[in-house]
Amino acid sequence: MSLKNASSLSEEKNSISDSNVHELPTVENVDDVHELDYSQEEYSRLLKKMDWILLPLMWVAYGVQQADKTGISTQALFNFRQDNGLVGQQYSWCVLLCQFPMSYLMQRVSVGKTLSVLMFFWGIVVLCTAFAHNWAGLMVLRTLQGLLECTISPSFLLIIGTWYKTSEHASRSIIWGTANAGFGVIVSLCMYAIGNSATNHKSGLAAWKGISFFLGGTTILLSIVAWFFLGTPREVAWVSKEERRIAQARIVSNKTGTDHHKRRDWKKDQVIEAFLDPSTWFLFCSVVLGALPNGGITSFGNLVYTSFGFTSLQTILYGIPQNVVSIFWFLLMGYLCRRVPRSRFYIMLVSIVPAFVGLLALALLPSSNSFRWIKFGMYFMTVTSNINGLLLWMHVPSNVGGRTKKSVVSSIMFIAYCVGNAGGSQFFLAKDAPRYIPALIACSICLGLEFVFILVWRIWLSYQNHSRDKAAEAAGLTPEQIKVLGAENGERDMTDRQNPHFRYNY
Fold this sequence. Notes:
The protein has helices spanning 6-14, 40-75, 80-83, 90-93, 102-106, 111-128, 135-149, 152-163, 166-177, 179-200, 207-229, 241-250, 268-276, 278-307, 312-339, 344-364, 372-381, 386-393, 395-399, 403-425, 437-475, 479-491. It is mainly α. The protein has one domain (38-259, 267-491): MFS general substrate transporter like domains (Growth Hormone, Chain: A, Up-down Bundle), CATH 1.20.1250.
């Protein structure tokens, strides 16, 4: 936004120039929902209730989804490829994830109920993996699983955006984001027990089949719990009518619109804006570049461990400390996001550096058992970049206004995520096993490029905020007036670019 818009800002300012801060028009024209209706004590009481119900459930659900998706990596340690006749790059294609326009669907249905139903069916698909016996069957099952699983992250972004303030998005999302590692510890111990039992009883059920039964059954049970507790304020039954109104009022200041109305209309202008917005493509490129190494390491990480000289069971156990380090890093970065304003992009930049160094060192260190523990330490360093995917996703609820635009940008972002994860597995060619040196170098290059994109993107967003601040200053608007007008525009379903009073969080 440039200073030429100062005249229009001045007109808005004139309409409220005779009002003090408590008399400024809020969003009373939108069913009288506004922030000043309730006390901080009432907001804090609801926030505590939200945290105790939503975050544990989202933590478990996200952890289960990650375990289901990456379980194939552990199963590969127990004759999974041999039993199913997989050769060459066939194993890689089993990690293909499908992105479906679920964001469009979620705009027209109940988010929580739809997600729980899809979760139930993907649990059945994971369970059925135990009955696969060839590549074709696995491809069908993994494609169905990807089709169903891809709904969870867009749904969680919608849920976070309708319950929490922008300043709370990163810290709350990081909590359920730790499930990748935290729930991974629990699952690793369970899979170790299954693998150990199968190793000691070779005539019994194959370990990889037992893992499928365990993961699928867990997902099905969780879907039943999610049906009753997961959803937006408008959908769930565990808040009263008054608490629902409090939930809407506390996030008016986000300026991206609340869940107060179910907006079913699909706005063509917002679709066009989503594709023309430079931030959409900064997001797309950053997500792809981050997902490429993530997809490869997630699928082949345990096989890289075995190249250090560890056995299959040792690989499972030695992966647990890495998960613990990941949890610590997530929580530390979440604390910094909460305490230091506009620190998200700096955190992403810092998190890339250790992972870049670790991957490059893994590729360049000599192939010798004497370097086993040094490589182990280098592999530890790669966990720091895991947080970037989550922080990039937070751009949608925090920085994208307009319900239709938010849905479109979400779809573009998760297409990028799925393309990156599917493509990353193709870095790891069968002929390069067991060290996969070209793949590790390619992953480090992707992280270096991601660093550049995020840095330039932050400069762009900072410029946008500076331009809007200068225009508001020229129009004589106070911070209080900007806050009120921005909230009003957000409730009118204006996008972040249409709303001159919106400020980006980076």
